[in-house]
Amino acid sequence: MESLANQKKFIVPIGPQHPALKEPGHFEFTVDGEIITGASVRLGYVHRGIEKGTESRTWIQNLYLLERICGICSHVHALAYALGVEKLGNVDVPPRAQAIRTLVAEMERIHSHLLWLGVAAHEGGFDTLFMYTWRDRETVMDLLEGLTGNRVHYSVNVLGGVKVDVDEKQADAIRRGVDFLEERTKYYMKVVTTDETFLGRTRGVGKMTTEQADELGTVGPTGRASGLTRDIRVDAPYAAYPLYPVQVVTGTSGDLLERFIVRIKELYETYRLIRLILDKMPTGELTARIPRRIPENEAISRVEAPRGELFYFLKSNGSEMPERIKVRTPSICNWSSVINFAVGLKLADMPMVLSGMDPCFSCNDRLVVVNRPTGSQVWTWEELRQYGINYYR
Amino acid sequence: MDITSSLQNAEALLNLWMHGMDYPDLSRIDVTLPPRELKSAVSILKKAHWGYLSAITGLDRPAPAPTAQDSANVPAPDGAIEVLYQFCEGAAVLTLRVSVPYSAAIIPSICSIIPYATLYEREAMELFGVTFKNTPDSDRLVLPDDWPVGVYPLRKSFTGFTDAQKEEMVE
């Protein structure tokens, strides 16, 4: 490290591979001492050509393909797609089916937020919290499995409705699970807002004002923690959200701590919604008929994924296959914000700032510190994480 | 603000530049623009704080296949790439539609007005072969490093690699 200290500026490429966490991606940070002066991103290590793939599959096959875009928020992808196709086909989905879709979407939000809480705690060196949250997350995973038969790709949707029903026994199990999780979530709120060591990593770190959040195009809880009141469930209610209105959760301070608080408060709101849906579940059919050929048209479908707005553009040409499907995930919005926002922050804060945005986050095996022009030194992501933890020790 | 007034507001803002306009459904307005007017239109939306840029969608519109009646002397019509800039304000969605022919697929970059459009532009550039003039970063974003130059996977004409291209990639 001594020779590095003498250099004024060096570039820190991070990634692309990391077997331990979710997805690969590659970032390059230009650093002046400890402070980041530039950032860029290279994605595509898991680009699967799904948008192209949809053009040679039928509308029904695509439901299963698109659900597999993400293993964390799989249901919202299928939901956004199904809602779009139903718009194109002029199909009215029965209210009970919409309520079940909404129920699963909210249960998915619980699992995604708890997963994020664990990952973020781990990046900050707080592994106890990571273990606790992931243990408790199993509660909702089990409930999802009980309801749908699957832990990850629930496959609840069909075009025109849903394929699973909720009976009283399942509803009671979900209520009990939600009660338990609510108690645990209160505890996490206490830990996150009172543990001084952890607060040292989050309070005042990565602060983003409302104007900045707007300017950088952030979406979801990351934007809401900075006071942006954007939530598709409120702005353009879809599925059964008109029946079960959502109270949008926003924060003011816009730092990492606020992003924790906003997501935890969103969990409270999600528990409230789930109880409301179960108590006031409409009766009736689960599916409506949808034609195999979809008339030529264009549709836009937007839903609120756990990470923010998920945007689908669908174009049909009157055949059994779509002409074009465009998917804009919330993570790409937050990526753009990270690369613009990282400038001026400390390198040691990057693991936390990156995971604080909850990008469906490409984790990173190799951290190569290139010390131009004299040579390079290799770090792993683990070492960067450790570097961050030691920095604050 | 309710949807109707958002849409009317957008229409009023863009009135000067639009070459065509359509309300595809109750929450959407589509505005067709020539490429040279794109930046002015985006600037005015930004100044008026009309929503935010939600997505940039590419659409390939290949020329229709020549029919028997077409004379062999007439040059085949050129296909076009249409780029849709989708802005959202609440439930209202405004789409700016810009169409350019394959032979001159150049659109001015809007990154000087909306910096976070850079990733969207890079994606459209690689997948559709549109050039965004003055875009700050034109590095590969999603395609592999050894992907052949000039092959745009989301164009309808791309249905797989030729043998020559495969060999090139192996090398």
Structure overview:
- The complex is a heterodimer of chains A (393) and B (171).
- Chain A has two domains: 2-45 and 334-391, no CATH class; 50-328, Orthogonal Bundle (Cytochrome-c3 Hydrogenase, chain B), CATH 1.10.645.10.
- Chain A is built from 15 helices and twelve strands.
- Chain A has helices at 2-6, 50-54, 59-67, 74-88, 95-123, 127-148, 168-194, 196-202, 210-215, 220-224, 232-235, 256-279, 330-341, 350-356, 381-391; strands at 9-14, 23-24, 26-32, 35-42, 157-158, 161-162, 297-305, 308-316, 322-328, 362-363, 366-371, 375-380.
- In chain A, strand 7 and strand 8 form a beta hairpin.
- In chain A, helix 5 packs antiparallel against helix 6 (127-148) and helix 5 (95-123) runs antiparallel to helix 14 (350-356).
- The two termini of chain A are 19 Å apart.
- Residues 1-6 and 361-376 of chain A have low confidence and may be disordered.
- Chain B is α/β, with parallel strands linked by helices and 171 residues long.
- Chain B starts with a helix and ends with a helix.
- The A-B interface holds A 40-44, 47, 49, 51-52, 55, 87, 214-217, 230, 235-236, 297-298, 300, 302, 309, 311, 313, 315, 324, 326, 328, 332-333, 335-337, 340 and B 24-25, 27-28, 52-55, 57-60, 84, 86, 88, 90-91, 93, 114-120, 127, 137, 139-144, 153-154, 156, 158.
